[in-house]
Each structure stands twice: as C-alpha cells, then as structure tokens.
Design goal:
About 35% of the residues lie in helices and about 25% in strands. It has about 450 residues and is α/β, with parallel strands linked by helices. Helix 5 packs across helix 7 (about 185-200) and helix 9 runs antiparallel to helix 10. The longest helix is centred in the first third of the chain and has 17 residues, at about 115-135. The protein is globular and about 65 Å long. The model is unreliable at about 105-110 (pLDDT under 50). Flavin-adenine dinucleotide binds near residues 227 and 388.
C-alpha cells in the first residue's frame, strides 16, 4: 500500500485519518485552515462551553459512538434530560418523547395546545407513519429511503398530514436541525431528521468539540494552512495532490486520495472528471447560519432544553436553546447560555450584518418570548457559517448514488463528507471511516 493524502481536516477527514493511523498506514492530512475539526468547533469562554458548529449527537448514531469508544471518551457522553417546548400564539407548549414528562408540564400532555383537535387526531397518523418508515431512515445509508428522495419534506408532510402538522411539527424540527426550510430538503432527509430527533439527543460533558479534539490528538500527520489546489490523475488513476502553503506550491505524490471537503470544493479540485459528475458536486446546496450565543446571569429557560419557534410565529430564528441545560459542564451554576438558531433566508441576510445589529435583533426576538432576558448579556459570541449544513434537497440521494458509481472508474480516488449520507456528523464520520477501510483493503 502506498501513500494516502486526506484533503480536509474536518469531521470526515479526521475519521478517515484516525482509521489509517490505527492501521499504521502511510498518510498525511492537509488542511487549508488553521484548525482541524471543520464544522465541529468547540471553544471555552469565561467558564462556558460553546458549541459553535455542530450542536449534538442523536442517540441513534452508530459510527459516532463507536469512534467515541475507540477514543476513550464514550463515558463522557451525556443524554439531554430536559424536554423541548414549542411556541404557538405566544404560549410555549412543552413536548417530550417521554409520556411522563408531558404529563408533568401544565401546558402539555393531553392538553397539548400546540395543535388543534384535528391536528392531534392527525398526530396519531403521523406516529403510525413514522413507525412504519423508521427502519428506512438511516443516516449512514440514505439509499434505504430512496423512495422519499424525489419529493420535498414540505410537500410530503402537507400532502400526507396537512398544513398544521407541517407548520407546527415538521418545519420547526427540520429548520432547527438543518438550518434550512422543509421545502429545501428531500422527504428522506426531512423525515430522517425528525425520526432521529424523536429518539433523543446527546453531547459530552465538555461539549461536542471534545470529539474533534480527541480525533486531532490521535492523528499525527497533519499539515495545517495547506490548501489542495488540484487532485492529479493520469489515465483514470490518482497520482498525487497539488498543494499551496506559505512555503509555496508543490505536488505530494500519492496512490490514494480521500477528498473530505465540501462537495462544490471537491468539484474545483477534480476538473478532469466528466461534466455530469462535476454537476452533481456543484449542485449540492448548503444552509447558512449566524450562530449567536449569549451568556447571562440567572436561568432563562428553567424546565426545557429549547424552545422551537415555528416560522408562522414570525421570528427569524428556528428556536432558542439554553446550552446550560445540555449538561452541567456547559455553564457555571445559575447562568444561562442562550443560543439562537438563525436559519433560511434570514440567516443568509444576517451573514452581512455587523455584530451589533445581529445582537440587537436576537435580543429583541428572545425578549418577545422570554421578557426577562437582559438587554446586556455577560458576553455575546457570534460565529458565521456561510455553508452550515448540507441541505440534501430532492434528488440528491439519487444523484450522489450516480456519482458513487461513476467514481468506480477512478483508481485511488475517494470522496467523503456529510453529503454522502443524511447530512450530519454521523454521515461525515461514517463516510470517512468507510473510505479509509477501502484504502486499507
Ligand atoms: C451551525 C451548525 C450546526 C450543526 N449542527 C449539527 C448537529 O447538531 N448534529 C450533527 O450531526 N451535525 C450538525 N451539523 C453538521 C455537521 O457539523 C457537518 O455535517 C459535519 O461536521 C460535516 O463534516 P465534513 O467533514 O463533511 O465537513 P467539514 O467538517 O466542513 O470539513 C471540511 C474540511 O475541509 C477543509 N478544506 C476545504 N477545502 C480544502 C482544500 N482545498 N484543501 C484543504 N482543506 C480543505 C475545510 O477547511 C474543513 O476543515 C451542524 C453544522 C453547523 C455548521
């Protein structure tokens, strides 16, 4: 086995590199930025743990937990104990997959007011449908849900369950988790997100960043601030990677390349592929997000982890989360760490706003739901993601499958990343591990 170059030190690239490292293979990771982890990005600030990229792991994840076990951090996993709320007509209604939680809350349970009576009756149909389609909704193997690929999540939900379930069930869940609108997602991905969310969420005592940090510690051969500019191929066979860094341009010879960048970035490195394959990569779409976190004294949301705000309620966020409620390690006692989930066109517009304008807008929106939220938080942290989560729109699973088949003609070339599964940390890790195993085989 010769040398492998892994392009991109994000979630998928690190998982591939870690698998190669454990097998004693000859590899190098090249990362264009000055930190590894990509869209898993955790920082500590004034005693608070900030997840500035990915927020949580669904408890249905497999590859993620396997890697955590191998890295010795599985015991630091914490499941979210608190339920979520949903805003309707100015009232927050609590919902939880655990029946007893619902009954404990005065606005929830049998009185669950976020839905009309006919909506509640339809809710039963939704539950039966999900039980039926659940086994097809697999983040690591999207092909199982191929029959849900050609219709949008919005169209599917509206046709099957009606407008109310779309607007007060599917939309808030899908928008909070993908940071897009259900019109932009395939039904396969939109329903997959809801199915995984129902089972529960988890993090670690030190935040999601601990996973990237642990992978980085165990991946020895990384070159930072080094950007791939072209994957060199000859007669359908990988020869190496042209890179550019402060020390200039060079070509790293390689027999195998695992390209773990975003899909459109991969297209730019692979100009020699046929146009039909490049089109698939360039057509992969991403949501945007301006992540806004505000630390405060006192508890802002006592008995819930998050409040979802359906778009019909007229806010520009999909919801607010008190990260202090994720796990005790996130914040000092008696404080809150409010996180605003900007999404859709609002998030895209906000990318160009200055910090003061973003902060004012978010405080106004939080105060419209939680009037006691202070005008001056202890601190505000803003991080912009022009490309946040791959939207897996209608037809993407089918298109990516065509791409996978086309790639079989290219020896030593492996593409990985969240867009190969149902976009998530899980799909990125799974695709990285799978490609590394192929290299090793
Ligand atoms: C705000 C936000 C919230 C999210 N919430 C969740 C969540 O709660 N749960 C969940 O499962 N997922 C979540 N996600 C999605 C999840 O983070 C991503 O699906 C996953 O991390 C993507 O991993 P990746 O390896 O495919 O891409 P990335 O992590 O983006 O890695 C790509 C890497 O390639 C590097 N690169 C690009 N071009 C080059 C080049 N030419 N040369 C060298 N290096 C290059 C980049 O710098 C980057 O490090 C969220 C994402 C965001 C942004």
């Amino acid at each position: 086995m010769g040398k492998t170059v892994v392009i991109g030190g994000g979630t998928a690239g690190l998982a591939a590199a870690y698998t190669l490292e454990r097998a004693g293979a000859d590899y190098v990771v090249i990362e264009k930025g000055d930190f590894c982890g990509g869209r898993i990005y955790g920082v500590e600030k004034e005693g608070f743990t900030l997840d500035l990229g990915a927020q949580f792991f669904f408890t249905r994840y497999h590859t993620t937990y396997d890697l955590m076990r191998q890295l010795g951090i599985y015991e630091q996993r914490v499941k979210f104990a608190k339920p979520v709320g949903i805003l309707r007509d100015g009232t927050v209604h609590v919902i939880s997959p655990r029946i007893m939680d619902n009954l404990k809350h005065p606005t929830a349970g049998l009185k669950f007011g976020a839905l009309s009576n006919s909506g509640k009756r339809r809710g039963l149909k939704v539950a039966i449908d999900f039980l039926r389609m659940g086994k097809k909704l697999d983040f690591d193997d999207p092909l199982k849900a191929i029959e849900l690929d050609n219709v949008s999540a919005a169209e599917y939900a509206r046709r099957r369950w009606g407008d109310e379930i779309l607007e007060y069930g599917i939309q808030p869940i899908d928008s909070a988790l993908s940071l897009g609108d259900p019109e932009e997602l395939s039904a396969a991905y939109g329903m997959g997100l809801a199915w995984y969310a129902i089972a529960g969420l988890s993090t670690t005592t030190k935040g999601i960043g601990l996973l990237a940090e642990s992978l980085v510690k165990n991946v020895k051969n990384v070159r930072m601030n080094t950007a791939a500019t072209r994957i060199v191929m000859e007669n359908g066979k990988v020869k190496g990677v042209e890179v550019s860094s402060d020390s200039g341009k060079e070509t790293i010879d390689a027999d195998q390349v695992i390209c773990a960048t975003l899909a459109p970035q991969a297209a730019r490195l692979l100009g020699e592929l046929p146009a039909a394959m490049l089109d698939i990569l360039t057509n992969v779409k991403y949501s945007a997000c301006t992540h806004v976190m505000m630390a405060t004294k006192g508890k802002m949301i006592d008995d819930m982890y998050a409040i979802a705000t359906p778009r019909r309620e007229g806010l520009s966020v999909a919801g607010f989360v008190d990260n202090a409620n994720k796990s005790p390690g996130y914040a000092p006692p008696n404080t809150s760490l409010m996180h605003c989930f900007t999404y859709g066109r609002f998030a895209r517009e906000m990318l160009d706003w200055d910090d003061a304008r973003v902060t004012r807008k978010m405080i106004d929106e939080i105060q419209s739901v939680i009037p006691r939220f202070p005008d001056e938080p202890l601190f505000t942290e803003i991080f912009r993601w022009p490309e946040a989560v791959c939207l897996s729109g209608p037809g993407q699973i089918t298109a990516v499958q065509k791409l996978k088949i086309g790639l079989r003609d290219y020896e030593g070339l492996h593409l990985v990343g969240e867009y190969f599964g149902m976009p998530s940390v899980e799909a990125a890790l799974h695709s990285g591990v799978k490609a590394a195993k192929k290299v090793l085989a």
